[in-house]
Amino acid sequence: MAALEERIPLLADAEQPAIDDLRDLQQEFEQEYPLRTPSREVEVSENASRRTRRKHYSGNEMIVAVFVVAFDTKKGNIVEWKHPEAVNLEGVEFKSLASGLHHVAKDFIYFKQNQLFGLSCFEKIPVASVEERGARMKSVGILAVGYSDLHFHMDFLQRQVRTQVETPGHYGSLEEYFRHYQSPRQPISRPIAASDSSSHGTEDLPPMTITHPAGCFTQFLQFFGPKIFILWRLALLKKRIILFSPPPIGVVCYRVYCACLLASHVLATELNTDSNPQFYVNVADIDQLKTVGNYIACTTEKIFQSKRDLFDVFVDNQNITTTQPRLEPVLRLTLADEQRYQHLSNVRCVGRAR
User: Fold this and answer.
1) For the chain, how many helices (H) and strands (E)?
2) Percentage of residues in the chain with pLDDT exceeding 90?
3) Is residue 45 within 8 Å of residue 191, measured between CB atoms?
4) Residue 214 burial (CB < 10 Å; 0-12/13-18/19+)?
5) How far apart are CA 70 and CA 7, in angstroms?
6) Cα distances (angstroms) measured from residue 345 to each of 22, 31, 59, 154
7) Rounded to whole angstroms, what are the CA distances from 151 to 66, 159, 226, 255?
8) Is the pLDDT of residue 235 over 50?
């Protein structure tokens, strides 16, 4: 039970301390290492979940498709409905209904579909139907140009999947939502008001909100402990990393995001630190992964551990292993790692005491 609770996605009230911890860490860092650039005024709101802070012009929030995936007892995973009808969603039914999800009641999944990124919310309810074998399972999801704004759609997708499992066949709200995000850029809720200066890194990572994956960063640190520095080295080396976990998989998708953040920064550099997040992958992605030079991904399918040509590092909970002997020194936990983590923990404790 404890292991299952570790993987359950964080509730809104539990994520706010994580945001406060990161805010304190940022202040500590800025005091010790002040940037020699003109200061930027950043206004932090204490009630930042829904208020409009600034207009977003990047286009990453534009939805390319919206869909409903269901489990059919005769056909397996199927795309029940999609919009636009002409969009090619081949394979999305296996990404938005991940292997093993029948063991949980609710979950969410980040994934990559060709050059697009997706987010789907899953729910299973008991039904008095022999044809459905006593359970109805569906996912409602979207595809978008980028992944950094997907979390803004989480609440809507969670409400819609509840509607689809309780009263199937009503898609009007999904079509309306799609049309809204095809219209000219709309103001989007932002928790932090900042200047529109561009930043450097894997992507123009947005400020954290309560539903943002980076809100789990404190739990990410606690989960891996000093081994966070092993992941940091591997991310900087741009290795192929797979994180394995049984469902629920949503919180592991968050760990993929946080692992990518380890190699991201806002300082201009000639070094390309793009960690190439793939998020959730399954056996249907094996051929595609063989062509990818570096990535960080997660899966619920243990068979990936035997596909040693697909990855450099396999992470099973906190157990980090490699297929390459030359990486063994990188995976060794050093005294310096322990000391850095202790210092990081002390900084967090000081921040909480304020």
Assistant:
1) 11, 14
2) 61
3) yes
4) buried
5) 24
6) 12, 17, 38, 31
7) 15, 14, 28, 14
8) yes
